[in-house]
Design brief:
By secondary structure, the chain is α/β, with parallel strands linked by helices. It has nine helices and 19 strands. Strands 5-6-4-14-15-16-13-17 form an eight-stranded mixed β-sheet. Strands 8-2-1-12-19-18 form a six-stranded mixed β-sheet, with helices on one face. Helix 1 (10-21) crosses helix 8. It is globular, with a radius of gyration of 22 Å. Bound molecules: flavin-adenine dinucleotide. This is Glycine oxidase ThiO.
């Protein structure tokens, strides 16, 4: 079956790969590969150290996706010989001072209450593991299973795997090499002109170049770009909002290392410093990613104060930061939702159109489960029937928690009269065809407390 995937961030790429692997003929449409939120991401796969208060519905999704990562990476390695930045280097939680220590200890209590593996470290163990940490930092907790990938490498590997000839012995069911179009989708509508008629709808995508594509299934994974595609039904406007993050990339200078040493820190460090969170992610190539701010001030450019805070906080934990080379400052917007949970499901009355966006702070971690469930909603390659009915109870529960229509009537993002669904491409309430800027774009919602990721 032909499936067009819109968007080539981690979510679109991984979904396209999954669909190809299952036997679909995939077209991937995006103006770039991995240049939006995915480009900024640190790549932490951290279902434990990313735990926040009151996000109980998110933990099972994070844990389930983390469990699928190893198999996904092994399979990708069978398709292409390309690095992904996967490092099993673990994570250490730190607190800079006494009040930070109470705050981190409270959060560790929540993690442990959920049965997560987090162990306190004595100061001597901490010092032996990470001798470059500031002498005043004495309290740490070990999270041995929170690891990392490098999202820039991973997206490159996925793009390569989509185009690569696949060994039929390793991928007996795979579809053809994906068609990859560097284009922006501006509109989506139902196409009832096909031979099968309305019973088996097809969908027409209009591209910014004016070209049109028609396909049997569509997966919309354009991150925040969702709101700029005309023609999407407006029954459930998605509560998407940009949550900007500033992130730094540092390089350790060779004279900062002892003979034989390759990195100043071995584990990913997540610290609370004067009530603010900061993380330092050591890459395999000797770089360190320091992040990240979390802002809803609408400023698309870098906030100078955020850079200063990140450097101050990182240097409080690792003093050598001040002598490193500042290689890059990146700012991107996370596709945020009110509860940090993705928006994944088929559109009302249009089971052939699957939405997969809103991955907020966790898109790198959650992409494997998002891709697998989106592919399940698309259905098998050689039948028109969606496969949702065959989902396991566990998958059905995960999908229910990511249902794009989950917002309650009290949620300000929900329209007062959501009773009339708009078929794809149909006129909206004004009688005009839904147009860019009128479709369910980013809807203002109350900001959540500052979080990092
Ligand atoms: C500073 C920072 C640090 C982060 N760190 C982590 C981390 O450590 N771990 C983690 O799990 N997550 C992290 N995240 C979150 C993660 O980056 C996002 O959740 C994830 O990248 C979202 O992926 P996506 O594919 O949905 O969207 P994006 O990466 O934003 O990609 C969207 C894609 O859609 C395309 N597109 C948009 N509109 C259209 C259109 N109309 N037609 C065609 N294509 C279109 C874009 O060009 C782009 O290719 C971080 C985010 C930030 C900003």
């Amino acid at each position: 079956m032909g499936v067009t995937v819109v968007g080539a961030g981690i979510v679109g790429l991984l979904t396209a790969w999954r669909l190809r692997r299952e036997g679909h003929a995939v077209t991937l449409v995006a103006p770039d590969v991995g240049r939006d939120a995915t480009y900024a991401a640190a790549g932490m796969l951290a279902p434990i150290s990313e735990v926040q208060y009151g996000q109980d519905r998110l933990y099972p999704i994070m844990t389930a996706s983390r469990a699928e990562y190893s198999e996904f990476l092994a399979e990708l390695a069978r398709a292409v010989d390309a690095p992904t930045g996967w490092r099993e280097n673990g994570t250490i939680l730190l607190a800079a001072d006494r009040s930070d220590r109470d705050a981190v200890a409270d959060l560790v209590g929540v993690q442990q209450a959920h049965g997560m593996e987090v162990e306190p470290m004595t100061s001597s163990v901490l010092r032996r593991r990470e001798p470059a940490l500031a002498p005043g930092v004495s309290k740490g907790w070990d999270v041995p299973s929170d690891h990392q990938v490098d999202p820039r490498l991973l997206t490159g590997a996925l793009a390569e795997a989509l185009a690569a000839p696949l060994d039929p012995a390793a991928f007996p069911e795979a579809g053809p090499a994906a068609r990859q179009l560097r284009e922006t989708v501006v509109a989506l509508e139902r196409d009832d002109d096909g031979a099968a008629g309305p019973a088996a709808p097809r969908y027409r995508l209009t591209l910014a170049s004016g070209e049109e594509l028609v396909d049997e299934r569509v997966v919309l994974a354009p991150g925040l770009g969702y709101g700029r595609i005309a023609g999407i039904p407006r029954r459930h406007p998605l509560p998407l909002r940009p949550v900007h993050g500033d992130v730094l990339r540092l390089r350790v200078h060779s004279d900062q290392l002892a003979p034989g040493e390759e990195q100043l820190i071995t584990a990913t460090i997540r610290a609370m410093v004067r009530g603010r969170s900061v993380y330092l992610v050591p890459r395999g190539d000797g770089g360190i990613v320091v992040g990240a701010s979390s802002r809803e001030d609408g400023m698309a450019g870098t906030r100078a104060g955020a850079v200063q805070e990140l450097l101050d906080d990182a240097a409080t934990i690792l003093p050598a930061v001040k002598d490193m080379e500042l290689e890059e400052i990146t700012t991107r917007a996370r596709p945020g939702t009110p509860d940090d949970i993705p928006l994944l499901g088929a559109l009302d009355d249009e089971p052939g159109v699957v939405v997969s966006t809103g991955y907020s702070r966790h898109g790198i971690l959650l992409a494997p489960i998002g891709a697998r469930l989106a592919a399940a909603l698309v259905g098998p390659p050689r039948s028109d029937a969606p496969r949702a009915a065959e989902l396991s109870a566990a998958d059905a529960a995960l999908l229910a928690s990511m249902d794009p229509a989950r917002a309650t009537p009290d949620d300000p993002s929900v329209p007062s009269d959501p009773s009339e669904p708009h078929p794809v491409g149909a006129p909206d309430a004004s009688g005009e065809p839904a147009a860019a800027g009128m479709s369910p774009g980013p809807t203002p919602v109350p900001p959540t407390p500052a979080q990092k990721g």
